[in-house]
Design brief:
This protein has 27 helices and no strands. By secondary structure, it is mainly alpha-helical. Pfam families: PPR (PF01535), PPR_2 (PF13041).
């Protein structure tokens, strides 16, 4: 009855689509749209917005194409959501076509459409196009500056990002946090910490928020700056920025990377039990694993299961790594076998590599090789690398040589594989192969 009534008014249909979308009922919103025989631009904009916000990106673009086919022109309500979906799909050719259509409609220099175009180009890895558009815009808002800064940081163009940041007439919290996060992601811990210190000054116009705290903490972990991390923790507590579960989890990771497991566990225990999500549990398991405390990693895993949190692939990577570094072979193999049968988690390259390492460290090289041979996918460099290391450690030169040859195929540019194989061949008196490897080294200039 309702659908029949909507056929006479696209305006009412648009309102219904917006209502359903606001409640998260995209199925009903889509049904309303498709049941309206003569959709209006308003209705198209409503469903495009709904699909885009809920990341139905392909549907968004299909509806936009239909809109254009019917002769309707996009406006500043249409393009930002279409471009968001283009960015989600990294469909740069579609984005460039959309850019062209927006130019015909006279909209690329609209502040919102222009910023959306810059964001799309940045997320599609086209920072050059983003910068050209940015330079052409007569009016830029802070979001357009931030989008380009994030793009430069993502591409590793740190100096360009800093130059743009310094030129900004007005910086907001996103500007500062993007720079700090970018420095951290590019391994520039000292620059990230310096910028955070500048932002934290009493006379700073923009103060850190909890996202900023999360962005700067990896810098402490990367540089093992435990004291700096503790000062940031004190600052976060003083400003009330440490109550968010994601921040507390970030502190767990920071303390673990800085070698302070006691502080890491204290932060983990401070997270309210009902707010300890999978990321928090995975971080704590990985912390124990990275410090060779396999028993603690196993105990934490079992606590997680008892808490009703379902593991994922990252959980098992940490768990199996912990078992490997602690010599818990039987326990590790049991968890590996239970991944798909008990927890319905798909086994991937990294899990097989962990088991190869687990068996290899225990000297069970034949079984480790059998694991590689039975993998449902082609073994990667991590698995063969683990077998190579095990062969070297246990002086099984036959296994080591086999693994090294496989690594040549997978990583022909890795000089370490050639150098180590020379040693293996010398120990086996394979003089001809040593000479061949030297030729390969010379040809690859490694």
């Amino acid at each position: 009855m309702l659908l029949r009534g909507l056929r006479g008014t696209a305006f009412l249909a648009a309102k219904m689509v917006a209502m359903y979308a606001s409640s998260g009922d995209i199925t009903s919103a889509s049904r309303i749209f498709h049941s309206t025989p003569n959709p209006s631009p308003l209705l198209f904009n409503s469903i495009i917005r709904a699909f885009s916000l809920y990341r139905y990106s392909e549907e968004t673009l299909h509806v936009y194409v239909r809109m254009c086919t019917l002769g309707f022109r996009g406006d500043y309500f249409t393009y930002p959501f279409v471009l968001k979906s283009v960015a989600d799909l990294c469909f740069v050719r579609f984005g460039k076509c959309t850019h062209g259509l927006s130019m015909k409609d006279g909209l690329p220099f609209d502040m919102y459409v222009g910023t959306s175009l810059i964001d799309m180009y940045v997320k599609c890895g086209e920072c050059g196009d983003a910068r050209r558009l940015f330079d052409e815009m007569p009016v830029r808002d802070v979001a357009s500056w931030n989008a380009l800064i994030s793009g430069y940081m993502r591409d590793g163009a740190v100096d360009l990002a800093r130059d743009l940041f310094d030129e900004m007439p007005l910086k907001n919290i996103v500007s500062w946090t993007s720079m700090i996060s970018g420095y951290t992601q590019n391994g520039l811990a000292s620059q990230a910490l310096e910028l955070f210190d500048e932002m934290s000054k009493e006379d700073s116009d923009v103060k850190p928020n909890w996202v900023t705290i999360m962005s700067v903490l990896p810098a402490c972990g990367h540089s093992s700056a435990l004291e700096r991390g503790k000062k940031i923790h004190d600052f976060a507590q003083e400003k009330g920025l440490d109550s968010h579960p994601s921040v507390q989890t970030a502190f767990v990771g920071m303390y673990a990377k800085c070698g302070s497991l006691a502080d890491a566990r204290w932060c983990f225990d401070r997270i309210k039990p009902n707010l300890r999500n999978l990321v928090a549990w995975n971080t704590m398991i990985a912390a124990y694993a990275s410090h060779g405390l396999g028993i603690e990693a196993v105990r934490t895993f079992e606590q997680m299961i008892q808490a009703g949190v379902h593991p994922d692939g990252i959980t098992f990577t940490g768990l199996l790594s912990g078992c490997s570094h602690s010599g818990l072979v039987a326990i590790g193999l049991r968890y590996f076998d239970s991944m798909s049968s008990v927890y319905f988690v798909e086994k991937k390259h990294e899990h097989y590599a962990c088991v190869v390492d687990l068996l290899g460290r225990a000297g069970r090289l034949v079984e480790a090789y059998e694991i590689i041979s039975q993998m449902p996918m082609q073994a990667g460099a991590s698995a063969w690398g683990s077998l190579l290391a095990a062969g070297r450690c246990h002086r099984n030169l036959e296994i080591a040589e086999l693994a090294a040859k496989k690594l040549f195929i997978l990583e022909p540019e890795n000089s370490g594989n050639y150098v180590f194989s020379q040693i293996v061949c010398l120990l086996n008196w394979h003089v001809e192969e040593v000479n061949h490897l030297r030729v390969l080294l010379k040809n690859h200039r490694v």
